[in-house]
Amino acid sequence: MARKLSRLPKLITRPYEDEFYHQPGAVPGTIFIDADAPPPIIFLIDYNQTNFIREQIATPEECIPYLDGESISWVDVQGLGSQEILQRLGQVFELHPLVLEDIVNVPERPKTEDYEDQLLFIARMVVPKERICGFHSEQVSLILGKNYLLTVQEEPENDCFETVRSRIEKSKGIIRKQGADYLAYAVLDAIIDGFFPVLELYGERIEELEEEVIVKPTPQTLQNIYQIRRELLQLRRAIWPQRDAINSLIRDAPDLISEEVRIYLRDCYDHTVQVMDMVETYRELASGLMDVYLSAVSNKMNEIMKVLTIVSTIFIPLTFIAGIYGMNFNTEKSPYNMPELNSYWGYPLCWAVMLAIAVGLLFFFWRRGWLQNSVVIKQN
Amino acid sequence: MARKLSRLPKLITRPYEDEFYHQPGAVPGTIFIDADAPPPIIFLIDYNQTNFIREQIATPEECIPYLDGESISWVDVQGLGSQEILQRLGQVFELHPLVLEDIVNVPERPKTEDYEDQLLFIARMVVPKERICGFHSEQVSLILGKNYLLTVQEEPENDCFETVRSRIEKSKGIIRKQGADYLAYAVLDAIIDGFFPVLELYGERIEELEEEVIVKPTPQTLQNIYQIRRELLQLRRAIWPQRDAINSLIRDAPDLISEEVRIYLRDCYDHTVQVMDMVETYRELASGLMDVYLSAVSNKMNEIMKVLTIVSTIFIPLTFIAGIYGMNFNTEKSPYNMPELNSYWGYPLCWAVMLAIAVGLLFFFWRRGWLQNSVVIKQN
Amino acid sequence: MARKLSRLPKLITRPYEDEFYHQPGAVPGTIFIDADAPPPIIFLIDYNQTNFIREQIATPEECIPYLDGESISWVDVQGLGSQEILQRLGQVFELHPLVLEDIVNVPERPKTEDYEDQLLFIARMVVPKERICGFHSEQVSLILGKNYLLTVQEEPENDCFETVRSRIEKSKGIIRKQGADYLAYAVLDAIIDGFFPVLELYGERIEELEEEVIVKPTPQTLQNIYQIRRELLQLRRAIWPQRDAINSLIRDAPDLISEEVRIYLRDCYDHTVQVMDMVETYRELASGLMDVYLSAVSNKMNEIMKVLTIVSTIFIPLTFIAGIYGMNFNTEKSPYNMPELNSYWGYPLCWAVMLAIAVGLLFFFWRRGWLQNSVVIKQN
Amino acid sequence: MARKLSRLPKLITRPYEDEFYHQPGAVPGTIFIDADAPPPIIFLIDYNQTNFIREQIATPEECIPYLDGESISWVDVQGLGSQEILQRLGQVFELHPLVLEDIVNVPERPKTEDYEDQLLFIARMVVPKERICGFHSEQVSLILGKNYLLTVQEEPENDCFETVRSRIEKSKGIIRKQGADYLAYAVLDAIIDGFFPVLELYGERIEELEEEVIVKPTPQTLQNIYQIRRELLQLRRAIWPQRDAINSLIRDAPDLISEEVRIYLRDCYDHTVQVMDMVETYRELASGLMDVYLSAVSNKMNEIMKVLTIVSTIFIPLTFIAGIYGMNFNTEKSPYNMPELNSYWGYPLCWAVMLAIAVGLLFFFWRRGWLQNSVVIKQN
Amino acid sequence: MARKLSRLPKLITRPYEDEFYHQPGAVPGTIFIDADAPPPIIFLIDYNQTNFIREQIATPEECIPYLDGESISWVDVQGLGSQEILQRLGQVFELHPLVLEDIVNVPERPKTEDYEDQLLFIARMVVPKERICGFHSEQVSLILGKNYLLTVQEEPENDCFETVRSRIEKSKGIIRKQGADYLAYAVLDAIIDGFFPVLELYGERIEELEEEVIVKPTPQTLQNIYQIRRELLQLRRAIWPQRDAINSLIRDAPDLISEEVRIYLRDCYDHTVQVMDMVETYRELASGLMDVYLSAVSNKMNEIMKVLTIVSTIFIPLTFIAGIYGMNFNTEKSPYNMPELNSYWGYPLCWAVMLAIAVGLLFFFWRRGWLQNSVVIKQN
Asked: Which domain of life is it from (chains A, B, C, D, E) (predicted)?
């Protein structure tokens, strides 16, 4: 009565749910603004080996002077809640209508596309939820130009680029000496590395469930296994196309990406494969857990049945004997009518027979190992 | 007695069922008219940047003047119910006999075929059924010529091209400035986008079933899971070859499709992959649900068995004791014959023993956690 | 007692069973005649645009004049029961020893092989059994030469080429105007189209089983599902290599097949893919049915257990109470010995307690929904 | 007590078990002699179109004169039990150290390797065990030189080359007219054909199990299914790499194999694919049997539960009624105390009520179809 | 109470767990030192055909003179516990920052990368745990230069290179006559061969479990099967990418690897495929065991239910009869009230009826084969 099974959380990111606002047959390039989307905030970082500017700007047009210069500009748009700003953004960066559609009509499947003087990369970023299972998932679109990088995120919160920004600001590593392609790599690398903390959580949860499923399987355990399988399925759908996209960056060698950065992308590709590898391993473990659960439940049923069978099988014959001597056949009418009732040792003998039956049955059960197992499982 | 299990709907589109009228060994190009097929209605849209004509025409031959002109003509045939009209259509458009066969002898597997001056694309269009689960599925054949597009649908109802027609009429986007290949793309894109609303329905139904399967699994649930799996299998069969067909359009670069439209087709291809992705994800979820269902049913059985075992195990020994003192051994014939019956505290002691046994067993069950779980599940 | 489970039919075509007569290490090209094989009957059709001859001939040598002429000759051998005739056939057509072995030592896996002036195609033909489930399966070997086609069937019955023969005779379509390659295509097409009626039967049987497995699962149902899975496995083995063989005909473009006929083969290839597609779909459905069956059986067990538990749980405590007041404690020896027996309202109160317990337990079961479900399932 | 479950045979060929004597880090080319290996026996067959010699020779060096001649020499070594002889063999045939290692350190995975003037083919030969299930498996290494073939078998028994030897001796077919490459083909073909009798046994055993699993499933059945799956897994591991090896022989066209023999190898390749095909089919059947077994066991449980439920549910209420009238309420103390006991029709009425209950419950069970099914299954 | 289920060991090598210290967005090439990592120990072996030096050195810089000479140098670093030493090592060997990151930030996925004058190979080495199941797993990074080989191991213990070192020292085989590429091959070969003893352990454990799962399945068995599946999953993840890496070494033919050594690598590749093959086979066996376990548990339940059903079904009707004649209907008030009680043969007849019922039911059970099976299983 008291404790209820916790409800399954809604499918966290229903796969590409927003896409459904997309009316079949609409003009390609049409962009749809979700009413709940937060309004866009625009951040600009502009740097070269000597200078560094970081500021929030109000309108897309404020980028224009930076884009024309020789320095590297990183324009980071967070939020998709204004059709007007997004369209002006498209004009400032001269985006192909299909590119703008891919950026705005989230979720889009991760992919890369080469538009000669621009390179589009659609990525999916995951961030672990604080203290709750599951994860936050968000689309990040990267548009790489000759000396700029435009990134568009769905929401302002939950971003794993802070270390990249601080590397630029503090000129850590070689980032200030490299072009926009290296910056794009650094952002992509941060997105891929962001999968590892999420996966670590799943590793821990699977370990807990392994313990639970064998020692104390409950209906809640079943629900948890299913939930993990469902979430790993989502992770898999997020990482799989990302691998293909990075691979095609390395293989097709677009002009915008230098030879040197391609070596770094190879490293990033290796991490993507690691993530996929872990996701698949966890999926196999979770799927194995379901089998174990089913077996564990059957084991419990076996134990319950054993207790019932032992108790019933011992007492039902004894009760029958007691019933016999509870019959009211008239001993006076015939010497064959229950003479035992009047015999001197009748009652003690009756007990002796009953004890013999009980001991015999217990021996029978012990021989089969039922008594013993039934103890082993007691702790479960 | 009252409520019955709802019947499974018939396999909605029995895969290619009409094909069976196709007599093995028949002349290739023979066309078979299904008696139930609705008679064809022909719509014509003819446009260029300045003019726009939209009308229903009575005979295929009325198209001929439009086909000869420079403007783009879209001939849309709805219904396959007349052999004569379809054959005259074949003559007007100079269709290869095999093309006519593919168009008329539905269902054909989605595919694309290049006949030098014509390009055949067999597609499958799905439309969600209003308020009932399942979907309406229909073959659409596209024949693309230099300046015309012929589309042939199975039925007049359930068509998702209205937005395309209105885009042409209102000259939205660039459609009026482009050739027949762009029109073919627009139609294909509308077909692919039409899968999303159908998938959304399945997403919702799976969420409902996830709830149901854990909280209150019934035989009806099982049936629903099976039904969803079956329908997703159909969706998968519809979308999979469509992806290959679009891909071969992009890869083989037929002359009839311009470079620019190929970029749009790439976008359309991405959506096809998204659809496939979602179908596969839903299929995995549905298949996981079957496992969960089986486990949930086992859990319920466990609970039932526990109740039976607890009640039986407690009362069977007590009944045995009561049976003992219901025996009629003659206490007068021997001092060993049931002296308890005549003792002063016999009856109260008997009760005390019985209570001790009951409490002992309850403690045993509590130690195993049976009493407790049995409460937890009460709500289910 | 009466009705028995029907026996599983023997594996209809034990995969390649005759092959086992093939002694390991035998000379390649050795041919083995199965004692049960029917004696060969030879039919000849010879035609060009103007003439048509159709006759049964007694010896392979009678073909020779026809083979030398310009007209197209179709020699159709039905039955593999005579080593002598088959070897003479091999000499007449100048077959490579391995070709003769492939033709005679059935079953051979479907394949195509190019011997410069001859093209070998091993196909498998299926024909639905009349009114019984399952299908008849037979190997057909096609040897295509410059102006002749030799077909060799295992048995005279069950052949789906009659429509092809009549198309030639009545000069339907373009068959009389084309070469031997078109004839080979027509025969192949008839073989592939012959799979559709067989598949239609499976579609119907699966629909029936879907009904049965949910509404009234019996051990017979289980057997039927297994049987269907087994037969679909056979169909799959028959169609899969056939697709590869046709594909290699199209891809490798042997000289004996004209460009025009290759277009027709592409159509035939599409049908092969359709067949494969349907077989795979049915296999998935049948495999899903097995899961449903297992769940349905568990559901039935649940219902049975519920009835047992309800009845036992209600009556066992009541019986215990009745047992209590059946005890023979001597009420005269002590005021504590069962004073209830002598009280004025003893018996009615006893009934009242028992009724209260029964009602309480029924309420408990109703709360759990056991009473209710137990009604729902009644019809099953 | 009497009959015990038969023990599972040890994993017949533990995969590559001997390999473990291979110390990690040992010099490549090191050969390890298993203490149990039988000592090598060497047979020599030397022939050309006119001459034929067949003899057992004592030392590898005795081959040398034959190898130098123009005639074809087949040296067949049976047994791997002497390091010295094997190393001398290596010197006589000028084997690369890695080749000798592959030959001696069995089991090696089937493969082919081209050493310019020698071609190594590692094959696995299976022979059915007489009258027991399972099969004997042995590695055969073929080294093909310009005019000789060296074959090395693990053991002298169980060899399927006798027909090849007799074909050479009796000059059957074209073997005496061909080179060493044809001889190598003939040996390979015998090895591949040797799989068919083994597979035939599995076909029969699966048919028996199909019968057994539905009609009378026992724990032994379960064990048999598992055993078959395990053995088919071994067969699959033996045949799979063999296909790749033969394919690479055909594709890479090493100089040592003539064009003509390649046509024969194509035939051999087809047989390998047939074997694989059958193994996969049997594996699917065996895996389906496991599902059927589980369902059949559940069905049996259902039947058992039904019997228990029917008997308990009928008699428990009746026993309760009997218990009621076994109570000892004092009918003299109160008119409400069990007046039935003293009524004239009490006992007959009591029986009437009990019969009515029993009939009612039987009707209830009949309505559910429990009585009926319970009869159907009786024979199982 | 006494024996508890043994706890599952923690996921032995949580897949790439240390990777998680890797802060998303960190500078590529950043190296992270795990606090628990042992401090590095450096061993140097320098040799040519005539000389041999083997010593432990204190600082990376001590290698420099050796690296400049013509002799082959093998620097073996064991332990990753000092950032300073590792960075100095990077400078001495002029490692690319990404290479150093791959070496230090273990675990990295096995792979190979070609940096023109250096070749990086990341490998995973497994060593069986003494007397306990499971295995020790460790990353080994190989950097191959023109005349040196640098190997970096995670820990000083558990290394399978001792035989390689002794082969160099004692000049066994051709290792002293070959270059650094042969040394790299020898190390790789030792790593791959190290998988075989681990796999042998799993072969033995699976054989034990096969016995156990059929003869005496307990919850512990279930846990063991799951544990083996989990560990085989880890082995698979270790060997799979290693195969790809070795294959790419052979295929891409980097300059640093001579033609001759490539032949040896082909042999090493074959062993890798053998390992994969065995891992997959064991995985299939373990997964089959899970099915068998589930069936075996169901079988046990069947046996338990049979015992309960037999005992209950026999005694419940008998007890009912005994209950009948325990009723207290007043025989004096009516001739219809239990006249049996006063009849002369009442009691013996009552027994006769009860015996008849018991024998009848036993016959019924024997007909169904329940009595018999129930004996068979006794030993389990």
From this structure: Bacteria
